[in-house]
Structure formats: structure tokens, C-alpha cells
Q: What sequence folds into this?
């Protein structure tokens, strides 16, 4: 009886370890896929005042990783890339931080900001309850997917946060 | 010890107060095109030729859409920490001030408030930067779309310093006010980002102003009068070269009677760290000309933050 109990405890512990390792491995894999910030951003329509409705196309070998990284990519895109337009009625949007020197200067802030579960999550939300339209799930090569997710980025609040951090100048700063 | 500490604190406080540049005022104004298309014009005959000017007061009283758009733009600019002057309120203030001035008289002598013809002419709604607003409704069958154009114009240099323009998404069902609201939301970020570029340039290269030099009819000198072998016009140019940011200015016109200097880049602060505008900057030139060997009495006239005129030969 005692022996049986011992072996089942060992089994449970091993199971827990393997689940944890697997989760960590998946996370690392997803991070690896999005490490080089490979994504495309386009305007999806006119959002509410102070927000931008965008479709972010993320690339990954695993479609699940692309979906999980969509929010991070969208916030990154609004800050560093901007977009040239989209459908009719969309206007181009410039990157909030256009200068490369600013990125280097505030590298530690951005590293912490874009950590998994980091502050970036405050400024983005899914616009379609996480569902992906059939046309937005594309297999671009034998081992790669391109997934389009529509998200809403709180552009106004994001800009204010970067102004507070001294990364951006406010319209009235200096006056 | 305490006294010197207190003095240093006061010094720091005064520097921080004075280290703010003079903030330009901004006002949204419906464009002449919009007023004309919507029938808000005043027509009158000026010696036989018909002159049309926008009737802003009637536009604000009769058109709810213009109020909606201006209100939304004002709100979005306030959110960015840059509240705007509201043109409708400015027009009302001017009218009530004029009525009060007409009624006011001195308790002792019964005299009215002094006002020169120039003062009367200057009593108009004005701002340092004008946001000129135009929109047109495009209709193709039942489909409607809004063509939106917002221009930021420097009131003194006449340069366009910010812009946002484009056509919105055509819609079968949306009402015009909804399409207008969408257009404002879609374009304001681009407008403010181009305005920010202008402000960044101003902080780096100085404020751009216009300086005019004129002379009174009865002054016996002119801009070709020589002092120590140098013409007065050249002396003024040299002064500007020495006192502008990186020596930047353009001599647009120079005759014996007048000179016009454009793109004059002035520092935002003087030697004492105080914020300066065109008037404070040109005051230094006025004082320079009053002193020997020139000894030219002159009058300094200003127009907002960015335009100043010196009239040579007297006050």
C-alpha cells in the first residue's frame, strides 16, 4: 500500500513537471517566433476616439503562437512602425516613436514593457472575441502560417504613458 | 546662511517660471470655401466691385454641424493639453466688450474710452495659429462620404504648418454628423503629429517671425541714409544676422522707404531667460536704432506673437 502511494506521488510530480516544462517550452517557442518582431499592421476601420482599430498579421510555424503574440505585435506596431493605411476611410498613422535613438535610449523601459504579461496589455484588447476570420488564417509556406487578428489599441492612453516616461514630447510641453 | 539659501530657491523658481516659451493661441475657423458653399457670406459693394466676406456669426447660429465639428476638435486638442480658443465665444466677447466700451464714461470728466481707428480695426477674432476647416459631402446615389480638410496656418508667416486631409468611407446608412465625427477622429492624430513637428522645429531653430521696417512721411532720412559709410538697410540686416538663431532670416524686400524681413528665426528666450515674442525681440532693434550714432526715433507696432513693425522717424 505504502509502495503504491509512493509511486503515485512520484507519477503526479513527474506529470506536473512535464506540464510546466511543456508550457515553458511553448512560451519560449512563441517568444522565439516573435523575437524579430515580424508582423504586418493595417488599419481595420475608424475606432472610437483615442483608439485605433487595427488588424495585425503575425507569422509563426504554429498558428496558436501567432494568435497569442498578436496583441504584443499590435502595440509594438503602433509604437514603432505605424501603418500606411488600409480600407477606404482609413488614414495613415505614423509611429509614436519614430527615432531609433529613442528606442536605444529607453531600451530597458521597452524590455520591461513588452515582457509576457507586461504593461503593454493595458493598452490593447481583442476586437472580435479572439475569433479569426477564415480568410485571415493563411498558410504562406509549407511550415509557416500568417494569422490576422483584429485588435483595438488605446492609442491616446499609450501616447500619454510614453509622454510621462519622457520618451515622447507632449503637444504643450515647453510652453 | 538661511538668507542665501532662500535667495537660491527664489532664483530657481523664477528660472522655472520664465523658462516656458510663449504659447501660441489656436482657433478653428470654417474656411471661406465652406462658408461660400453653405451660403454664409456677406456681400457688399466696394466702389462698384462686389466683395464677399464670410459671415461667421450666422454660420455658428444656424449650422449645427459646424458647432459639432469644432466642439469635437476642441475636445481632442484639450485632451492633448492644448485647449483652443472657441471662435463663437470670441465673437460674442468682442461684441459685448464693444458695447461696454461705447457705454463707458469717466465719472469725473464724462470722457469716453480712447480708441484709435487702428484699435477699432484690430477688434476681430484672432489667434496665432488658425485651424482652417473645410468639409464637403460627396453623394453618389444613396452613398455618402465626407471629404475633410484641416489646415493649420501660421497667422503671421502665412505658412501652412500642419495638415490633415482625406475622404472617409462611403456609407449608405450613416448620418452626416456620424460621418463627420468619424472624419475628425480619423484625421486629428495626423494633424497633431504635423503640428508637433512644427513645434519641435520651433524649439530647435527658434520662432519664425516677420519684421517690417517703414518710415513716416515727414522723416528726412531713409533706409539708404549712410552712417559711417554704411547704408541703414545694411546696418539693420547686420543686426538681424547677429541676433537671429544661426543667423537665419531672408530679406524679401528692401527699398529706400521700407524693408521686409521674412523667416526671421528668433530665440525663444532672452539673455535673462524670459520668454520673448516678436515685439520683445524687435524692441532690442528699436533701442539699437535710437542710440548713437544713428539716433533715429521710432515707433514699434506689434501683431500677435509673430509680426512686428518699426516705423522710423518718430513715435
A:
Amino acid at each position: 500500500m505504502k509502495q503504491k502511494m509512493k509511486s503515485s506521488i512520484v507519477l503526479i510530480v513527474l506529470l506536473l513537471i512535464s506540464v510546466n516544462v511543456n508550457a515553458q517550452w511553448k512560451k519560449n517557442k512563441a517568444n522565439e517566433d516573435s523575437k524579430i518582431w515580424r508582423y504586418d499592421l493595417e488599419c481595420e476601420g475608424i475606432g472610437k476616439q483615442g483608439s485605433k482599430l487595427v488588424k495585425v498579421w503575425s507569422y509563426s510555424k504554429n498558428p496558436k503562437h501567432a494568435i497569442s503574440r498578436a496583441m504584443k505585435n499590435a502595440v509594438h506596431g503602433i509604437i514603432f512602425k505605424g501603418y500606411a493605411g488600409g480600407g477606404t476611410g482609413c488614414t495613415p498613422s505614423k509611429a509614436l516613436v519614430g527615432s531609433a535613438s529613442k528606442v536605444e535610449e529607453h531600451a530597458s523601459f521597452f524590455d520591461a514593457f513588452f515582457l509576457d504579461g507586461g504593461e503593454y496589455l493595458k493598452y490593447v484588447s481583442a476586437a472580435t472575441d479572439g475569433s479569426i476570420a477564415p480568410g485571415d488564417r493563411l498558410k504562406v509556406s509549407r511550415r509557416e502560417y500568417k494569422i490576422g487578428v483584429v485588435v483595438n489599441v488605446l492609442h491616446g492612453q499609450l501616447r500619454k504613458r510614453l509622454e510621462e516616461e519622457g520618451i515622447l514630447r507632449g503637444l504643450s510641453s515647453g510652453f | 546662511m538661511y538668507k542665501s539659501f532662500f535667495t537660491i530657491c527664489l532664483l530657481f523658481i523664477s528660472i522655472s517660471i520664465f523658462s516656458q516659451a510663449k504659447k501660441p493661441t489656436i482657433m478653428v475657423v470654417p474656411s471661406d470655401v465652406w462658408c461660400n458653399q453653405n451660403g454664409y457670406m456677406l456681400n457688399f459693394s466696394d466702389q462698384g466691385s462686389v466683395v464677399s466676406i464670410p459671415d461667421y456669426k450666422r454660420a455658428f447660429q444656424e449650422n449645427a454641424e459646424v458647432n459639432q465639428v469644432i466642439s469635437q476638435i476642441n475636445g481632442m486638442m484639450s485632451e492633448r493639453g492644448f485647449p483652443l480658443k472657441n471662435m463663437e465665444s470670441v465673437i460674442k466677447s468682442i461684441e459685448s466688450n464693444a458695447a461696454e466700451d461705447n457705454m463707458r464714461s469717466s465719472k469725473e470728466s464724462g470722457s469716453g474710452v480712447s480708441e484709435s481707428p487702428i484699435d477699432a480695426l484690430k477688434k476681430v477674432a484672432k489667434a496665432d495659429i488658425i485651424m482652417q476647416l473645410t468639409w464637403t459631402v460627396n453623394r453618389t446615389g444613396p452613398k455618402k462620404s465626407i471629404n475633410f480638410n484641416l489646415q493649420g496656418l501660421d497667422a503671421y508667416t502665412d505658412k501652412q504648418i500642419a495638415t490633415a486631409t482625406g475622404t472617409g468611407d462611403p456609407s449608405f446608412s450613416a448620418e452626416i454628423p456620424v460621418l463627420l465625427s468619424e472624419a475628425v477622429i480619423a484625421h486629428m492624430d495626423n494633424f497633431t503629429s504635423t503640428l508637433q513637428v512644427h513645434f519641435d522645429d520651433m524649439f530647435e531653430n527658434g520662432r519664425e517671425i516677420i519684421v517690417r521696417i517703414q518710415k513716416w512721411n515727414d522723416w528726412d532720412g531713409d533706409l539708404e541714409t549712410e552712417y559711417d559709410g554704411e547704408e541703414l538697410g545694411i546696418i539693420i540686416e547686420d543686426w538681424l544676422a547677429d541676433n537671429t538663431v544661426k543667423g537665419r532670416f531672408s530679406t524679401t524686400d528692401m527699398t529706400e522707404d521700407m524693408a521686409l524681413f521674412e523667416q526671421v528665426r528668433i530665440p525663444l528666450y532672452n539673455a535673462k531667460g524670459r520668454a520673448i515674442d516678436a515685439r520683445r525681440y524687435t524692441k532690442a532693434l528699436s533701442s539699437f536704432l535710437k542710440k548713437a550714432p544713428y539716433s533715429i526715433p521710432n515707433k514699434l507696432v506689434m501683431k500677435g506673437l509673430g509680426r512686428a513693425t518699426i516705423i522710423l522717424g518718430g513715435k
